[in-house]
Amino acid sequence: MKKTAIILMLALTFVSLLSGCTRLPASVETGVKPSEYTGKLSAEEMKKENESLKTELDSKKLELEKLEKDYLNLAKNNEAIISRLQEAESLLDIVVSDDLPDFKSEGTDKNSIISYLNDSISSLDDSYRKIEIIQSTDSKILFLTTGYGEKFSQVFTWTIGEDKPSIIEGASFEKSGKWQWLLQDRFIVIDSGSGDKKIIDAENSRVAGEFKAKGEIYLLPDTSTVLIQNPESNVFSLYDFGLSSDQELKLDSKNKYTSFRVDDKDIIFEGTYKDQGIEYNVSATINIEEMKEAYSIKSIDETGANENMDTIESEDSLDGQSDNSEGKTV
Fold this sequence. Notes:
The protein is α+β, with helices and mostly antiparallel strands. It is built from six helices and 15 strands. Strands 1-2-3-4 form a four-stranded antiparallel beta sheet, with helices on one face. It has a four-stranded antiparallel beta sheet with strand order 5-6-7-8, with no helix packed on it. It has a four-stranded antiparallel beta sheet with strand order 9-10-11-12, with no helix packed on it. α2 packs across α3 (about 110-125). Mean pLDDT is about 80; it is low at about 310-330.
């Protein structure tokens, strides 16, 4: 019995020694040893933690979106400032330029172009240089500069949708000259002040004819023919700027008429002259339609002056424009 007890005690001592030398491996899941493990989260706690992380992520996304919007707004503001600076430089160039200015607008719609030109006009209030808008339509804007280059006037056309205008070739004249509508919204007559005149086709933005004349000229209704007076011989003639042809009027005492006036459907020529100390008055009346027939005056469609244009209004509609230099005389 005593021997058995000794054997049992030795066995227990051996087992005790073996257990003291044994080491468990680190946890595969947590990477920590059993003595370092403090416990694990419950499913509810893990859910709350995930929700907290999601809320924080959403907040960061909102902050990022706000920063992106602020950046885009700043970029747009910078572009707007740069655009305004460029337009200001352009306006300054218009004021100080000795030569024809380089017009250029960021906005190419009708309102933007007109606003740009009006700003340019305002910039020239105290300058001898001028800008004048002649006509604005849905397709283009016609305007005039005065006092640039060799101090002459130049007509421009600005097509809607373009960022800059074009010069109408030949549509220039001395600063002392003037312009008027020959036929409202269709033809402009430029008077250089020295007898040289030019007709601008406003619809097609081109010079339609050039001639010399003194005093008033008159556009025969529905034609491209004007009644003019030769500045040297005083003889009246009919100049067709569509055909570039000139026909002298067959009038008695042809070089003694000094003026004419339009009275309804007639043209009345008047003048005075002296013979052996006696002063005489002369007068002649010609019906407009009879004049057109007698001199084979063609309609504007037949002459080709109306190329790419709508037919000019009928004579009745022309009568409705009688507030412009007695209807059709300038």
